[in-house]
Amino acid sequence: MAEFCVEAGDIRQAVSRIAGVARRTPVLTSRLLNEATGVEAYVKAEIFQPGGAFKIRGATNFLYSIPESERARGVVAFSSGNHAQAVAIAAHRLGMKATLVMPLDAPRSKLEATRAQGATIVQYDRHRESRAAIVERISAETGAHTVPPFDHPWIIAGQGTCALELLEDVPELDALVTPLGGGGLLSGCAVIAKEVAPQIRLFGVEPETGNDHWISRRTGKRVEIPPPDTIADGLRTTRPGAHTFPIVQQLVEDVLLVSDAEILAAMRFLLSRMKILVEPSGAVGVAALLAGKLPLGLHRVGVVLTGGNVDLEFLGHLT
User: Fold this and answer.
1) pTM: predicted TM-score of the whole model, two decimal places
2) Which of 10, 146, 167, 179 has the fewest CB atoms inside 10 Å of its own CB, making it the most exposed?
3) Which residue(s) pair with 77 in the sheet?
């Protein structure tokens, strides 16, 4: 395996670091999902994490990796919601001050949940303002540690614990499918999956309009796109990460694209057939399965449901 910023050992160390904050989530199965997709699907339900999403893994690993002597400086991060909640939860557990920079169009449920953890929220217009510049200013003024949403070894290692758990529970998977935003989850999962099961096939799934990884993969370099218009608010990244891109590029077989209509269909299926509510970003892996986007010949497929934070107002789209 090529040398990356994260090794399998870093992910194994993260397991003990995040224990007590992040949960070991269940793996769900459904006869109806298997019949609809033609594979044995094993669904890793990160919707049951504190904060309702996988992001708690990376955020906890990051904050708990900060030396105790430096934690009084607090943390600052930008996020459309799930990373913000995760940072706020981990900071609350450590007694650290947290400031979260969130877009004006962030789902209300995610804003309220983040604020409920005691975090300070600074909102911005994603089409007119630079979230990175705002975070940089706050960090410079307060000395707070910046917690990236995906492009940092501590974040990547924490997210990789998701695949390690899944492969411990279901060791003979043919493939693993995860949503793909900045790439923190997929890259961490890829590193540990290839160490545990070298023959496993890895796939990331993006919304059609948020296809920065898909384009970058085919051009061989990181390409930036305009802020995408998609219901998958957690996958609105505009450029792959500098750390995550080479891992995805070398270890992942392909990046698949799904439409908003296909995402909605997956959400409806999960709610009506499996009785679980999954947010648009979290449902893209199942959307790819249901839409027949994966290669033929796969039998046992792991799929990560990354989050379950859905605004009540959005539920009308599922009827």
Assistant:
1) 0.94
2) 146
3) 100
